[in-house]
Design goal:
Helices cover 47% and strands 15% of the residues. The chain has 259 residues and is of the alpha/beta class. The protein has a seven-stranded parallel sheet, with helices on both faces. Helix 1 crosses helix 9 and helix 4 runs parallel beside helix 5. Helix 2 links the parallel strand 2 and strand 3. It is globular. The longest helix has 29 residues.
């Protein structure tokens, strides 16, 4: 299927590794020029070189903290008129809400709610003027299936999802869609860090807990990042203009509800 994306411009945050990286690769394979943003320059440059070599598209790297005004300005200076915007940020480590300070809550909101909203504010009007835009937020299944130890993520990401529900209905008539991807367990660095943070509370070894989480999933495995990347690329395509304001699970069937 031709996704109709060749020659488009994409701006992707949190794209040096994991799910963001997979989305950047998937879009680049469709002929999209990508600007990838992350804080760690070495991993970012390595990913950028790999994408350029594998796909031949133009790849721009921006080492910046997207939660800051300076970071957002640097990203938009490199890609001032994106057709596609991906907002992606790692969640904080699991913990007990009794231990979280106000500063930790504000940091979570900055990373997972306020910065994505600000990036949308800075790009959505241009997309509507040009008559094409695709905004994807990588969120978490925790907004539908909350886990107590992920309270910082539950709260901040749910705020983003609530905001998108209103905005997405205002932009779709101008061919600008906004959707949220809700990943479950994926074979990624972020997932390994999450599991490592749970070891003390569970009393299991890393290997035991890693294996148990896979076995508890109906698919009996972790998701592959390229599976989420492919889903993202389709949602960005010319074929997905009637999909907006949706919270789309990609979790191997682990969410137990009907709706």
């Amino acid at each position: 299927m031709d996704l109709g994306l060749r020659g488009r411009q994409a701006l992707l945050s949190g794209a040096s590794r994991g799910l963001g990286r997979a989305c950047a690769f998937a879009l680049a394979r469709e002929g999209v020029d990508v600007t990838i943003v992350a804080r760690k320059r070495e991993a970012l440059e390595e990913t950028g070189a790999e994408i350029a070599t594998a796909t031949g598209v133009k790849v721009t790297t921006v080492a910046a903290d997207i939660t800051t005004g300076a970071g957002r300005a640097a990203a938009l200076a490199a890609c001032p008129e994106p057709d596609i915007l991906l907002n992606n940020a790692d969640g904080p480590a699991p913990g007990d809400f009794r231990d979280w300070s106000r500063d930790e809550w504000i940091a979570a909101l900055d990373a997972m709610m306020l910065s994505p909203i600000e990036m949308m504010r800075l790009t959505v009007d241009g997309m509507m003027t040009r008559g094409f835009g695709r905004i994807i937020n990588i969120v978490s299944r925790s907004v539908k299936m909350a886990q107590l130890e992920l309270g910082l993520s539950n709260g901040a990401r749910s705020g983003l999802v609530g905001f998108v529900a209103g905005l997405a209905r205002q932009t779709v008539a101008r061919n600008v869609t906004i959707n949220n991807l809700l990943p479950g367990i994926f074979d990624s660095d972020a997932q390994r860090a999450h599991v490592a943070a749970m070891l003390e509370a569970t009393g299991k070894t890393f290997e035991e807990l890693w294996r148990a989480r896979a076995e508890a999933n109906p698919a009996r495995r972790y998701g592959r990042p390229d599976e989420l990347g492919a889903y993202c690329a389709f949602l960005c395509s010319q074929h997905a203009g009637f999909i907006t304001g949706q919270n789309l699970l990609i979790d191997g069937g682990s969410y137990p509800g009907t709706y």
